[in-house]
Amino acid sequence: MPEQLFISEIISQIEAAIEKVVARFATVKTIDDFTHNPSGMEKLDAICMQIIVIGELLKKLDKITHGVLLQKYSQVEWKKAMAMRDIITHHYTSVDAEVVYNTCKNKIPSLQEGIKQLKKAFLTT
């Protein structure tokens, strides 16, 4: 697969994973919505899985673009998004629902906007 097509596919996969997080988080109003019932815990697990996917894909994108592409969009904390993947993956039994809640509420919207800008710019080059 040519590199440009591969990069475009990764960007689309990141965008799809972000959309899943946004959709799943839409009904979550407080941290208790994650922690006080079985369906909330399932939602937390599902969101965490998508955050892992996002982080993994960002790492892959950063690697194949030699750290140049993401650097152009410094309004997003790319390294923290990648680190979140590591934290959830390696410390899954101690994932803090409050951290995930704050990530979804405060970080995912800027990540989503950054990916949209990156995709638009990348597709026009």
Helix and strand layout, with pairings?
Elements lengths: L2 H23 L6 H4 L2 H27 L13 H13 L6 H27 L2
Helix pairs in contact: 1-3, 1-5, 3-4
Give start-end ranges of low-pLDDT stretches. none
Our measurement of the CA-to-CA distance between the termini, rounded to an integer number of angstroms, reads 18 Å
Compute the average pLDDT. 93
- SS-based class: mainly alpha
- Estimated radius of gyration: 15 Å
- The geometry reads as elongated
Tally of individual domains: 1
> What portion of the residues fall into strands of 2 or more residues?
under 5%
Continuous helix count: 5
Quick one: how many beta strands? 0
Largest sheet: none
Helical content (DSSP H or I, runs of 4+): over 70%
Order of helices and strands: HHHHH
Description of the molecule:
With 125 residues, the protein is mainly alpha-helical. Helices cover 75% and strands 0% of the residues. The protein has one domain. It is elongated and about 45 Å long. The two termini are 18 Å apart. The mean pLDDT is 93.
Question: Which labels suit this protein?
Answer:
125 residues
Describe, in short, the structure shown.
The chain has 125 residues and is mainly α. It is 75% helix and 0% strand.
